[in-house]
Amino acid sequence: MTRLADRLRAGAYQAYAYAYPHKTAYRDLPAPVDLAALWAGEDRDNLFAYLHVPFCTYRCGFCNLFALGRPADGLVEAYVAQLERQLAVVGDALGTHRVVRFAIGGGTPSYLAPAQLARVFDAAQRHLNVDVAHVPAGIEVSPETATRDRLAVCRDAGIDRVSMGVQSFVDAELASLVRPAQRDEVVRAIGDIRALRFPTLNLDLIYGIPGQSAASLVDSIGSALAFAPEELYLYPLYVRAKTGLGRLEERRGAATDTRGALYAVARDALLGAGYTQVSMRMFRAPHAPAQDGPAYCCQNDGMVGVGCGARSYTRTLHYSDHYGVARASVSQILERYVGAPATSFAQARYGYALDADEQRRRYVIQSLLTWPGLDEHAYRMRFGGTAPDDLPQLAELFELDLARRDGGVVALTPEGMAHADTIGPWLVSNAVQERMDAYAAA
């Protein structure tokens, strides 16, 4: 196991550990797994339902999500129809259950026409028994597709959180991201979001863009704060293989890494504006609604993903459809999805089985990388031991003053949180890392 100190010398930005194991560690399962039998052994009282819509108006240069820009109209309609069929099959497989969180992401779900969005919400309610109006429920949108009619369908369905990727308010920086300038569309979309009284608006910004300075980043933050978003996410730019920016970097070489300095400037600006930092990326405003929906714990409770590109999580198995980034591979996977018989959705065929060690690692990663941190009592109740005993490498966090223990909670220090994208990858198991490396090399 590589020491964290050695990792830190290699740089603070190594990978975003938003899910563990990462999807690039998934492989074809030895045999299909029956979903009804799998979920029968799970606690289904507090589930997160996630629907995936893998379409966008255009593909941003930095994007490595499973998404397709400018899809044919026929493909979009076929996808929605197949999503409805999959919802029916998955709902039957779950049996008696309760959904306490709901999200529809992508891609850009607002790419769907209003009538298609309405069909998706109706199918989710009928087949997953999800009452969108009475659980925390979010949707991801882009400025040009967040039209008043689409937003109205979402609000009528009960969506209470809209997340929009702005990335920058500087036209030259957007051009560097291979993304069109959209200030007028952003202003119009936010006006509609506010007029329809969505309780939570989240705006995403990116730092580390070629040509971006501390001053221009602060200006973009100021422009975002003028809209008083309840949440704001700061994403460091990662230039990944198979993306548009990745291909550009291969030709022109990597630029100087300014992300660490820009993160500090941006974090301080948001803290100075009264926002509370939740993770390396997430900041919440003082006026954000209280998070008082039904209980859900991402470390313990399951996720049901529906749609090509969605992941599902149980305690022992994470599964999904196949993963791709390049347009050809995404198109091929989507073609298989829309052409599959509905009965195929009753089984999992691609994923990662989590043994006891992987379950503990996932719990620690999911807990440590957000504040308030890792609750030692909750960990003991789940696993019967202590995290420092189960993962001795955690001791180095304390040695480097990147974490502290307070009142039974192990939490990253501010300096530790600034290095979350090093700490997360450092906690990855050798088995998962080997699979991820093999995927990257393929």
Automatic annotation (TrEMBL):
SMART domains reported for this sequence: Elp3
GO BP, sorted A to Z: porphyrin-containing compound biosynthetic process
Keyword terms, alphabetized: Iron, Iron-sulfur, Metal-binding, S-adenosyl-L-methionine
One term under GO cellular component: cytoplasm
Tagged with keyword DNA-binding: no
Cofactor entry: [4Fe-4S] cluster
Superkingdom assignment: Bacteria
Pfam families: Radical_SAM
UniProt cross-references to SUPFAM superfamilies, sorted A to Z: Radical SAM enzymes
Keyword Cytoplasm: no
GO molecular function list: 4 iron, 4 sulfur cluster binding; catalytic activity; metal ion binding
Residue stretches making up the Radical SAM core domain: 41-281
UniProt name for this protein: STM4012 family radical SAM protein
